[in-house]
């Protein structure tokens, strides 16, 4: 048995300020050497706080998209065709996993649900019978552990996108055209809802906020004045509960996408080309800013990295009953993984629920 002292010190390497907002950019100025960067963005004005060059290779030349954050491993995770990209925000290490390169199969969006990684896949071997699946994938090896074939008919012929996880109902939710697919990962029950089919209307990305399902909608009836909206949808039947029309003008004519939720400011944040829009979910105050414009640069998905939590100083033992959960990983101050049994050092302990503590372990 040994004791640890919890320190009320914020780990500066990860917590420069509360949550951090990132996007990935691709610069094709040199067509023989595309440059990919992970950009940390100021949430108020779009100033690029930090630009991290990525060394991974993406044969399709597409930036990693469908970005998610794993609290368990401190990693931003994205996908580019069959390449899963991982970036550890604790030590800035990046790595990739290669999914099986099967003919007539492509991979889609990612989601972490109950600490499990799921990826959509589409098999088009039979052009008259596309097979859409959720794949449960080992986050370290890329091994496909389970394949769940979806039964919902998807007329648009592409996999559900913009995946979100409703932790209250334990359901993965995605959208394909106007079909919303809902899959319960515990009882394996799949359901779906149809959004209203209207002329000059298409639907975009999803976001879950306080158990509410929100979806973007674009109305292009007037080619000179597109109307971009955020809809609150009833999960049982797809009925529209509420509609908010964005005031921001999106010059690309594309609705904002890749939504993230800022829990500290109660804001939904999305991106359309180089325009980032923020919407307060309490009073619907809307604001926006532009990322720097360069002809050769294209911005991708957004991702939030949450802040870590710290405790007041307290002398306790890892074997004491007042420990809610025992640590699953430990890191030294250089960001290197060490044993959770490390003694007489200041280390960062990571717990199963995603929280982390900076501690002084005593032998």
- Helical content class: under 10%
So what's the overall shape?
globular
**Structural class given helices, strands, pairing?**
mainly beta
The profile of the biggest β sheet is: 6 strands, antiparallel
- Poorly predicted runs: 1-17, 309-324
In sequence order, what are the helices and strands, one letter per element? Answer: EEEEEEEEEEEEEEEEEEEEEEEEEEEEEE
| Percent of sequence in beta strands | over 45%
Q: What radius of gyration results from the CA coordinates?
A: 22 Å
Terminal CA distance: 8 Å
Q: How many DSSP E strands?
A: 30
* Number of continuous helical runs: 0
Strand order of the largest sheet: 26-1-30-29-27-28
* Average pLDDT metric: 86
Would you mind describing this structure in some detail?
- Mean pLDDT is 86; it is low at 1-17 and 309-324.
- By secondary structure, the protein is mostly beta strands.
- A hairpin with a 4-residue loop joins strand 5 (65-70) and strand 6 (75-80).
- The chain has strands spanning 3-6, 20-27, 35-41, 48-53, 65-70, 75-80, 83-88, 94-98, 105-113, 116-123, 131-137, 144-149, 161-166, 171-176, 179-184, 190-194, 201-209, 212-219, 227-233, 240-245, 257-262, 267-272, 275-280, 286-290, 297-305, 314-317, 327-331, 337-338, 346-351, 356-362.
- It has a six-stranded antiparallel β-sheet, with no helix packed on it. Strands 4-3-2-25 form a four-stranded antiparallel β-sheet, with no helix packed on it.
Please render the helix and strand layout as text.
Elements: E1 3-6, E2 20-27, E3 35-41, E4 48-53, E5 65-70, E6 75-80, E7 83-88, E8 94-98, E9 105-113, E10 116-123, E11 131-137, E12 144-149, E13 161-166, E14 171-176, E15 179-184, E16 190-194, E17 201-209, E18 212-219, E19 227-233, E20 240-245, E21 257-262, E22 267-272, E23 275-280, E24 286-290, E25 297-305, E26 314-317, E27 327-331, E28 337-338, E29 346-351, E30 356-362
